[in-house]
Design a protein that fits this description.
The protein is mainly α. It contains 18 helices and six strands. Helices cover 49% and strands 6% of the residues. Helix 8 packs across helix 9, helix 9 runs antiparallel to helix 14 and helix 12 crosses helix 15. It binds s-citryldethia Coenzyme A. S-citryldethia Coenzyme A binds next to loops.
Length: 435
């Protein structure tokens, strides 16, 4: 990276000033290269939660939080959602360009060819309780892929990385569907090569051995859009986890498993499940008539209640994915004759009231991707406990693309943050008899 400008850090304690290069990206905030600060000053920078820290350089995704824009490899999410399917977006995120028809066909064949899992993994699932949260199962079985596919774990070999990327993109839907089938006591379904990526997910989840399964095209398209919208999102918590895990040289399946663990939290990918539960509770308590009371509780810091599906570290405007998700929600509810779905009505009213309330407006809190995704998935028959699993199925391509970008960097280093220590100074040990 070239630097045209510099920043100078000066100290009131007489320490010598430090000059730091400033780099410009294609778009977005400049960065100040602080890597030499500790060596030159003996001081660390301090940024818990990484509010002002760029942890890496990347060419994959860009978010303009103020404008509410999301771009994958230079293409706005609205354009991709309207013109591509998930596999095409996977190719774009992985390789940096939209595929030609021939490239797309070869990529799809490769993904379909890897969509089955080793038969032994069927027994692996049986070790879990039937009522285990499917995210707990997914964390385990994705990490366990390293126990079955160790022939593509040489992270220094680009071909090995390519095969691992295709394998994890192809197998996580199959394993996610197996986790669901196991939870409802139904037999596992094998992936079908004659179906699209999204249609195959639907048949593996909802198909039964007693009758042929005909996917509903509107629902398949809706699921495909959900997969596109969740595919990547810069250096969010789970992607940063995958990068940090990968920086130690851990195998890609272990890194993706770590990402799934982070995604599970209600502040991150678990928000879609938490948001639907919030809407269902509002419905039980009286629905739209109780929204005012609920908003009052949210604004009361002591209540500990948050408006799930609202707010974002980067978006200080409407999350573009939330707009597309609301459209998808409307299409699905109309297709299913649920346009008067009470949860959708509550969500729309809650959004309207919140966006007129200064508490939310002044804090720039808008609906994010998780606000409507739960309603549409529930309408499609996907159980609440599976929402974050579906998010993980989609985000796998983002995680593995970011992991690959990092591992491919010639000067890639292990991530090892420092700290501000405020614990005890070294002190005398007191034997237990004298304590
Ligand atoms: C995802 O990073 C990504 O890109 C994530 C993601 C992706 O695609 O990978 O976009 C996916 O995780 C979306 C976010 C899903 N999470 C939720 O919907 C959970 C509810 N949202 C909040 O937990 C919160 O908004 C976060 C975690 C998303 C962002 O938190 P920040 O940036 O740390 O902001 P903050 O907690 O410091 O909040 C700033 C202020 C605070 O009030 P004050 O102290 O200034 O008075 O806004 C308030 C917060 O209390 N606030 C909320 C709120 N979110 C923030 N108040 C009520 N309800 C909320 N949802």
């Amino acid at each position: 990276m070239k630097s045209e400008h510099k920043a100078t850090l000066s100290f009131s304690d007489g320490s010598p000033s430090v000059e730091m290069p400033i780099y410009k990206g294609t778009v977005g905030p400049d960065v100040i290269d602080i890597r030499k600060i500790y060596g030159q000053t003996g001081k660390f920078t301090f940024d818990p939660g990484f509010m002002s820290t760029a942890a890496c350089e990347s060419k994959i995704t860009y978010i303009d939080g103020d404008k509410g824009e999301l771009v994958y490899r230079g293409y706005p999410i609205e354009i991709l959602a309207a013109n591509c399917d998930h596999l095409e977006v996977c190719y774009l995120l992985l390789y940096g360009e939209l595929p030609t028809a021939a490239q797309r066909e070869r990529f799809e064949e490769s993904v379909k060819g890897h969509s089955m899992v080793h038969e032994q993994m069927h027994f692996f699932l049986r070790g879990f309780r039937r009522d285990a949260h499917p995210m707990a199962v997914l964390v385990a079985v994705i990490g366990a892929l390293a126990a079955f596919y160790h022939d593509s774990l040489d992270i220094d070999d680009p071909e090995s990385r390519r095969i691992s990327a295709v394998r994890v993109i192809a197998k996580i839907p199959t394993l996610m569907a197996m986790a669901y089938k196991y939870s409802v006591g139904q037999p596992f379904r094998y992936p079908q090569k004659n179906l699209s990526f999204a249609a195959n997910i639907m048949q593996m989840m909802f198909g039964m051995p007693t009758e042929p399964y005909e996917p509903n095209e509107v629902l398949v398209r809706a699921l495909d859009r959900i997969l596109i919208l969740h595919a990547d999102h810069e250096q969010n918590a789970s992607t940063s986890t995958v990068r940090l895990a990968g920086s130690s040289g851990a195998n890609p399946f272990a890194c993706i498993s770590a990402g799934i663990s982070t995604l599970w939290g209600p502040a991150h990918g678990g928000a879609n499940e938490a948001c639907l539960v919030m809407l269902q509770n509002l419905q039980k308590q009286g629905g739209v008539s109780k929204i005012g009371e609920f908003i009052t509780k949210v604004k009361d810091k002591d209540s500990g209640v948050k408006l799930m599906g609202f707010g974002h570290r980067v978006y200080k405007n409407y999350d573009p994915r939330a707009k597309l998700m609301r459209e998808t929600c409307h299409e699905v509810l109309t297709e299913l004759g649920l346009h008067d779905d009470p949860l959708f009505a509550i969500a729309m009213k809650l959004e309207q009231i919140a966006l007129e309330d200064d508490y939310f407006v002044s804090r720039k809190l808008y609906p994010n991707v998780d606000y409507y995704s739960g309603i549409v998935q529930k309408a499609m028959g996907i159980p609440v406990s599976m929402f974050t699993c579906m998010f993980a199925v989609s985000r796998t391509v983002g995680w593995i693309s970011q992991w690959n970008e990092m591992i491919s960097e010639p000067d890639q280093k292990i991530g090892r943050p420092r700290q501000l220590y405020t614990g005890y100074p070294t002190r005398e040990f007191i034997p237990v008899k004298k304590r």
